[in-house]
Amino acid sequence: MDLSLQDRTEGDRTVVVVGGEIDVYTAPKLREKLIDLVSAGSYHLVVDMEAVEFLDSTGLGVLVGGLKRVRAHEGSLRLVCTQERILKIFRITGLTKVFPIHASVDEAVAATD
Amino acid sequence: MPTVELQLSPQPHHVRTARLVGVAAARRAGLPDDLVDELRWALGEACSRAVALHAAHAPDQPVRILVREDTAGLTVEVVDAGPAGPPADDADPVSFFEDEQVDPRVSLAVLDGLVDDVEIIATQAGTTVRLRWPLPPRPV
After folding, report:
1. Residue A86 near residue A55, CB atoms below 8 Å
2. Which of B23, B96, B100 to mutate to test the interface with A (most CBs of A within 10 A)?
3. Complex-level ipTM beyond the 0.95 threshold
4. A10-43: per-residue pLDDT in tens?
5. To the nearest whole angstrom, how far is the Cα of A89 from the nearest Cα of chain B?
6. DSSP A12-61
7. Is the pLDDT assigned to residue B137 strictly greater than 70?
8. Given this model, what pLDDT does residue B119 score?
9. Running DSSP on this structure, what letter comes out for residue B138?
10. I need a surface site. Which of B7, B93, B108, B133 has the fewest CB within 10 A?
11. Alpha carbon distance A72, A44 (integer Å)
């Protein structure tokens, strides 16, 4: 499955729903989406990863890049993920210390820094 | 000793092909579904790493992938021509993602965490990532 990307606004947050496979081929599309949102002034992002079927370290790099971009504007990037395989990759790479990870979009949208 | 061998020119879209072939070979060999999924993630990670290394260091050389079934189980090897390095620790995770160029050692750390039996074989010619899974006994 290819990568699918949809975004919507919830209050002052922008929710990006990611589905399919984030790999070395598709990660540039996610990078462009995050750059476009930040360029348009969306600095508080929630990335919903519940429909992601594959994620490699290239995808992790794009998420870290997105985090750096929103932080440059005092923004935030929160992840929504309950899939054990993906959570394991975040734990292995130490990124659970970097990203707030939530169990639902509602929880992520309601969270404050 | 059934073997599948692939040679991929180091282009990002081929990584998906490698995952699909690896999954098909693993199912054919009788690997349980949860381990087939583990193989898909690990092979994808190893191929992404190899393709990125080849793009930087050996753009004209193919990445080789071997899937071999023998008495020891199922072995997957991803052979690249890039420089090796020790797995990254997680002391400062963000530093491994400078400018979104992922340090290839991150891949090795991910592989080490995903799969129980991982061997990283570094030679002057490059690196072989060897992943192994036991296979359940075949019904007689």
Report:
1. yes
2. B100
3. no
4. 999 999 999 999 999 999 999 999 999 999 999 9
5. 6
6. TEEEEEEEEEESTTTHHHHHHHHHHHHHTT--EEEEEEEEEEEE-HHHHH
7. yes
8. 95
9. P
10. B7
11. 11
Report d(CA B54, CA B10) in Å as an integer: 6
Backbone angles phi, psi at A77, to 5 degrees: -135, 115
Q: How far apart are CA B76 and CA B130, in angstroms?
A: 6
What's the first-to-final CA gap in chain A, in angstroms? 34
Tell me the pLDDT tens digit for each residue of B29-82: 999 999 999 999 999 999 999 998 998 888 999 999 999 998 889 999 999 998
- In 3D space, the residue among A28, A33, A32, A31 whose CA is nearest the CA of residue A6 turns out to be A33
A99: its two tokens: 């990203």
Q: Which two tokens stand for residue B30?
A: 């009788």
Q: Which residue has the tokens 């922008």?
A: A14
Question: What's the Rg (C-alpha) of chain A?
Answer: 13
Phi and psi, residue B107, nearest 5°: -60, -40
B64-83 burial code (b ≥16 CB/10 A, e <16): bbbbbbeeebbbbbbbbbbe
Please indicate whether, in this complex, the C-beta atoms of B40 and A54 are within 8 angstroms of each other: yes
Q: Read off the pTM.
A: 0.91
Residue B92, Ramachandran bin (φ over 0: left; ψ between -120 and 50: alpha; else beta): beta
Nearest Cα neighbor of A80 from A31, A26, A22, A17 is A17
Q: Would you call B50 an interface residue with chain A, using a CB distance cutoff of 8 Å?
A: no
Closest CA to B87 of A73, A43, A93: A93
In whole angstroms, what is the distance from residue B65 CA to residue B74 CA?
13
Report helix, strand or coil for B14.
Answer: helix
Residues β-bridged to residue B127: B80, B122
